[in-house]
Write a structure and sequence with these properties.
Elements lengths: L1 H12 E7 L8 H14 L7 E6 L2 H4 L3 E3 L6 H11 L4 E6 L6 E5 L8 H12 L8 H21 L7 E7 H5 L1 H7 L5 E6 L3 H9 L3 H4 L5 H7 L3 H13 L2 E4 L2 H10 L6 E2 L15 H20 L10 E7 L9 H17 L5 E7 L4 E4 L1 H33 L16 H14 L10 E3 L5 H8 L10 E6 L14 H7 L2 E3 L9 H8 L4 E4 L3 H9 L8 E4 L6 H17 L2 H14 L5 H17 L1
Parallel strand pairs: 1-2, 1-6, 2-5, 6-7, 7-8, 8-9, 10-11, 10-15, 11-14, 15-16, 16-17
Antiparallel strand pairs: 3-4, 4-5, 12-13
Helix pairs in contact: 4-6, 6-8, 14-16, 14-19, 15-22, 16-17
C-alpha cells in the first residue's frame, strides 16, 4: 500500500515523456513494446502528463494521428514556439488503445542544418560523424528537435512539474547528451533493447557469448563501420540517470559492450486483452486451420496428398537474420525430425512455414496458378453440391412411398462432371511442390541452399514438408487471405530458437494466442520463463539449450522436442493449448508495467 501511494503521488506530480523511433512508425519489435504498453501506463499515470515523442513520416503517422488544436498548456506552448521557429512539429493523439498524446518531429525539414548538428556533436561530445548515411541523418535531425523541444519546455514559465524523459534505443537517445551537458531539470531513463554492436557481432561470431568478455568495443565497432553509432549509444547509456534493458541476457551484453551495467530489467509484455478469446480460442484455432488447409491442399495436393487430420502446422517468423533468429538451427532440427519420423514410421505429417522478408521479384507464377485452379475446383464442387442438394431434396419428397435413395451420380449433369474432371486434370502435376512461394532475388539464399543440401525438398515420402514464404502475411496476401495473428492461431507450434534475441515477441504472441512454442535460453523471453517457471513444458513453452551447448547438441535436443510434440494425442495438444492460454496473463502489461514504474520512482530519487 505504501508503494502504491508513493507511485500515485509520482504519477500526479511528474510529466513522463517516452521517446522512441517507433512511435507512430512501425519498424520492428519496439513498436509493439510501446503501443501495447500504453493502456497499462495511462490507466495509472495522469493521462495529461504522459506524452510520446517520435519522428513524423506521413505515410506511417497520418492514418493514426488526430491533431490537437489547443496549445495553451506548457507542451502546446513549446510546440507553438518550435513551429514559429520553422520546425515542422505535429501535436495530437495517437489513435491506438489509450489514445495518448503524441508529438512528432519531421526529420527532413532541418536537413539543411545537418552540418551544424554534426559539428556541434563533435565539438561538445567528441563524436565524429563524417559519413552521409540516411538513417543516421534522420536520427540526428530528430534528436536535435527533441532537444530543442525540451529546452523550450523547461524554460517556460508555465512548466511547474517534474519531468522524466524515457528514451528507447540509440535512435532516440541522442538528446540525453545535451540534457546532461546543459544540466536541464529532466530525469532521464535510457533503455537499450539490443546493442548495435552485439547484433553485428552475433551475426558474425558463432562463439559470441563465450567471447563477449574479451571484445575490444572500439576495434569491433570500427571493423563493422558503426563506430559513431556505438559512441552515440554508449553516450546515452552513460549519460542517463537510470539505464535499463529488457533481459538478463542483454544486461551482460551491455556490461561488456557499453561499459555500464543496467540498473533495471524491464521485461516486455503484451496487452493480452487484445488476444483474449476466452472459450472461443479453440474454435478459432479450428477455423483458421481450415484456411491454412486450403492453402496446403492447393500447394501440395496437385502433386500428392496426405491426411490433413493427421497434419500439424509448425512455423517460424521474424526479421531475416539467418543465424541470430535461429533459422539455421530450425532447419537442421527439421531435417533430423524428418529422419526420425521416417525411422519410427509415424503416420503424421508436419508442414513447416518459414515467414520472413527477403527481396523478391514477385510471387511464383506456378504457386499462384495452382492456388487459382484449386479455387476453381472448389467453386465447381460447391456448384455441384448446391445443384445436387436441390435435386436430392425434390427426389426424396416426391418418391411416391419409396424411401430408397436415388443414385447420386445420375443427378450430376454431364457438363458439370466434364468441367470438374478437366479442371482437376489441368491442376494435377508430376512435379514436386515448390519449397518457396516467391521468386527470390538472391540466388544464393541460405534457406534454399540448406533445404536443397539436406534434400528437404517436399519429396512424397517426406514426413516434414516446407513452405518458405519470404514476405510477411496479411489479409491482402493472395495465398492465405488472413492476418498474421489469424495465421498464428491456425498453427500448432511456433519455432523460435534464437541465438541472439534480447527479448523475442514471437513466442509471447504465440502464448497470448494459445499456441505452444519453442524458444531458446539465449533469448530474453526464454531465459526469463526458465528462471520464473519450474516446468515450462506443461505450459507449452519449450526451451532449447543453446548457452554453452554445441550446435549439434542443440539441434538434436530441438528435434527430439518436436518429435515429442508430434507424438502427442489430439487431446493432449488441446490441453496444452489451454495451459498456454491460461498462463499468458503473467505477461500482461498490467503486471509487468510495475517494472517501469519502479525505474521512474528511482530516477526521481536520483
Amino acid at each position: 500500500m505504501v508503494k502504491e501511494k508513493e507511485n500515485k503521488e509520482l504519477f500526479q506530480q511528474t510529466m513522463l515523456f517516452e521517446c522512441a523511433w517507433e512511435v507512430c512508425n512501425q519498424v520492428g519489435g519496439i513498436y509493439t513494446v510501446i503501443r501495447s504498453k500504453i493502456p497499462a501506463i495511462v490507466s495509472k499515470w495522469n493521462r495529461e502528463n504522459y506524452i510520446l515523442l517520435g519522428p513524423y513520416f506521413e505515410d506511417q503517422a497520418s492514418p493514426a494521428f488526430d491533431p490537437i488544436e489547443d496549445l495553451s498548456d506548457p507542451v502546446g506552448f513549446a510546440v507553438h514556439t518550435m513551429r514559429e521557429s520553422g520546425f515542422e512539429v505535429h501535436y495530437g493523439h495517437w489513435l491506438v488503445t489509450g489514445r495518448p498524446k503524441v508529438i512528432l518531429f519531421n526529420p527532413y525539414t532541418i536537413f539543411n542544418r545537418l552540418g551544424d548538428i554534426k559539428y556541434k556533436i563533435w565539438a561538445d561530445h567528441y563524436i565524429s560523424i563524417d559519413y552521409d548515411d540516411d538513417l543516421t541523418n534522420k536520427v540526428l535531425s530528430f534528436g536535435y528537435q527533441v532537444t530543442e523541444f525540451f529546452r523550450i519546455l523547461v524554460n517556460s514559465d508555465l512548466q511547474q512539474t517534474n519531468i522524466i524523459a524515457h528514451f528507447h534505443e540509440w535512435m532516440a537517445g541522442v538528446p540525453i547528451m545535451d540534457i546532461r551537458k546543459e544540466n536541464m531539470p529532466i530525469k532521464t531513463v535510457f533503455t537499450t533493447h539490443a546493442t548495435m554492436l552485439g547484433r553485428y557481432l552475433a551475426m558474425n561470431d558463432h562463439s559470441f557469448y563465450n567471447n563477449l568478455p574479451f571484445y575490444n568495443w572500439e576495434d569491433e565497432a570500427k571493423h563493422f563501420n558503426i563506430f559513431p553509432i556505438v559512441q552515440l549509444e554508449r553516450a546515452a547509456a552513460h549519460g542517463s540517470h537510470v539505464f535499463t534493458t529488457v533481459s538478463e541476457i542483454t544486461a551482460s551484453e551491455c556490461t561488456h559492450l557499453l561499459g555500464r551495467t543496467p540498473d533495471f530489467i524491464l521485461p516486455n509484455g503484451l496487452n493480452i486483452e487484445r488476444f483474449e478469446a476466452m472459450h472461443e480460442f479453440q474454435n478459432l484455432h479450428l477455423d483458421y486451420k481450415e484456411q491454412i488447409n486450403e492453402f496446403v491442399m492447393g500447394h501440395f495436393f496437385q502433386s500428392y496428398s496426405f491426411n490433413l487430420d493427421k497434419t500439424m502446422y509448425f512455423f517460424s517468423s521474424g526479421r531475416f537474420e539467418y543465424q541470430n533468429k535461429g533459422f539455421d538451427l530450425t532447419l537442421e532440427a527439421l531435417a533430423r525430425l524428418n529422419y526420425k519420423m521416417k525411422q519410427e514410421n509415424i503416420d503424421s505429417t508436419v508442414v513447416f512455414f518459414l515467414i520472413t522478408r527477403q527481396p523478391t521479384y514477385s510471387f511464383n507464377a506456378q504457386v499462384l496458378h495452382s492456388k487459382a485452379l484449386m479455387e476453381e475446383i472448389k467453386r465447381n464442387t460447391e456448384e455441384i453440391e448446391r445443384d445436387l442438394g436441390k435435386k436430392l431434396f425434390y427426389s426424396v419428397t416426391q418418391n411416391n412411398g419409396s424411401y430408397k435413395l436415388p443414385n447420386l451420380n445420375d443427378m450430376i449433369e454431364e457438363h458439370q462432371e466434364l468441367k470438374l474432371r478437366r479442371n482437376v486434370k489441368t491442376w494435377k502435376s508430376n512435379n514436386l511442390p515448390l519449397i518457396v512461394t516467391h521468386n527470390l532475388k538472391n540466388e544464393n539464399d541460405p534457406v534454399l541452399n540448406f533445404l536443397r543440401m539436406s534434400n528437404l525438398i517436399n519429396n512424397r515420402d517426406d514426413k516434414v514438408k516446407v513452405v518458405y514464404h519470404p514476405d510477411f502475411i496479411n489479409s491482402a496476401n493472395p495465398l492465405f487471405h488472413m492476418e498474421y495473428g489469424q495465421f498464428i492461431r491456425g498453427c500448432h507450434l511456433g519455432v523460435f530458437p534464437s541465438y541472439y534475441e534480447p527479448w523475442g515477441y514471437t513466442p509471447l504472441e504465440c502464448m497470448a494466442s494459445g499456441i505452444p512454442s519453442i524458444t531458446s535460453d539465449l533469448a530474453g523471453f526464454g531465459s526469463y520463463i526458465k528462471a520464473k517457471f519450474d516446468d515450462c513444458e506443461k505450459m507449452g513453452l519449450y526451451v532449447v539449450n543453446r548457452k554453452n551447448v554445441s550446435y549439434n547438441d542443440s539441434a538434436e535436443q530441438m528435434a527430439n522436442l518436436m518429435l515429442r510434440f508430434v507424438k502427442l494425442s489430439r487431446r493432449e495438444r488441446i490441453s496444452m493449448r489451454n495451459n498456454v492460454e491460461e498462463n499468458s496473463t503473467h505477461f500482461d502489461w498490467t503486471n509487468l508495467a510495475q517494472n517501469y514504474f519502479d525505474a521512474y520512482d528511482e530516477v526521481i530519487k536520483r
